[in-house]
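Everyone, describe these C-alpha cells:
***
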Amino acid sequence: MRPEAGAQGKDEDMATRDRFTETEHAAERPARALNTELLASATTWFAAAVAGMIVVFVGLAVDAYRHNHGAGEETLLSFGNPGHLIAGVGLVVTSISVLAGLAVASLRNVASAEHAIRRMVPVAGAWVVLAVVAFSSVTYIGASGVTVGHSDNHGTSASADQTHPEGTAAGDAGVAAALEDMGIDLDDPSQVEGALTQGSDGTNSGMHDHGKHPTFTALMTKSDSELLPQFPSGTVTADTLPELREQVEQVRQVALKYPTVEAAQAAGFFNTTSDVPYMGQHFINNKNLTDGVFDPSKPEGLLYSKVDGGPEKLVGVWFLLIPGIGPTTRADQPEGFVGDLDLWHAHLGLCLVGTSGASEGETAESCAAKSGRFTKDLRWMMHVWVASDVTENQDGFFAYLNGDLYAKQAAVKAAANGEQTGVTP
C-alpha cells in the first residue's frame, strides 16, 4: 500500500506544478546571471570607454570635414554642428565608462563593508573631480563665447572701417587719384592682385561673359525694342527678354531682403572670401547650395563690399552649381537664366587664405605655402549685379567683373591708407 500512496503523492505533486513556468524561469536565470556578470566586469566598462573614444574621433572628423567644406564660424557648444554633438556624446560615454570600470575593479574581492568603503573613497573623489572640471569648463566656454571655424572677419577691411579724410569721398576725383597713385588701370583687372581674372580655360584670356550688355537699371526701365539691340548677338530675343526680366527681378528681390551682412548671417549665409577686387566678399548658403537646383529666388550666394566709410553693403548676388549635385555636370554649363546671355565660369587653382586673400592659378603646393585652402577646379559660378542703388555695373548685369565696384573699393582703401599715413590722395 505504501508504494501506491507514495506514487499517488508524487503524481499529485507533479499535477500541481506549473512545468511550463518552471522551464521558462530556468531558461531565464542564466541570462540574468550573464547580464549581471557583464556589468560587474571592469573589462566591459573599459571596452565601452574605448568605444566612446572612437565616437569622439568620429565627431572630430565630422567637424573637420564641415569646416573644410565651408562651414562658418561657430561656438564650441554649438550642437547644430553634428560633429560637436557626436564628440560630446563620445566624451560622456568615455568618462562614465572609465569611472564605472574603476569602481567595479575597486570593489572586486572586498572582504567587508568597511573594506569596500575604503576602496571607493578614491573612486568617489575621481567622480567629484570630473564633475567639477566638466561643469567649470562648459561654463567657461559658454561665457567666453570662444569660436572655431572660418571667421567672417577679414584683414583687408579692418583699416577700411575708417571714414574718408576731409575733402575725400568715393567719387570720381578721389577714385582717379587713388588709381593713379597705385598705378592701376581699371581696364586691365589682371594687374590687380586677387582680382581672379582667369577664365574657365585657366588663362587671363578666358571668357567669363558674352560682353557688354545693358545695366540692371536699363533692363528694368527701357522698352524691349530699346534693349534688344544692346545685347550681344544671339543671346537674347524678343521671346526670351520678358522672362529674363522677370527672373532678374526675382534676384533683385533677394538683394532687397539682405542689404547687410547681419541680415545675410541671420538667414544662414556665411563669408568664404576676402573683399575680392571687382567682386566683393562671397557669402554662401549651404542649404541653397546642396539642393543642386537653379532658382533665381534662391541664390547660393550674396556679395558684400566696402563702398564707403560705413559697413559692408550688398553689391550683388552670385550663383554656384557644383557638378555632381543635382543635374549639373562638369562638361556642360548649367541651364540657368532663360536665353543665352548667362555665361557661367570656373575658377582653376583657387586658393583662399581664410577670409583675407584669394588667388587663382595656384598649385596645391603654392597654396599650402600660404596656409590656404586649395580647390583645383571650382565651377559653375555666375554674378548678377542687381544692387543698382549701391553699384551699377556699366558692363551689364551679368558681367563677370564690376569696374564701378572696384573704383569704390579702391577709393575706400586709399582713404583709409591716407588717414594712417597722413597722406591724402
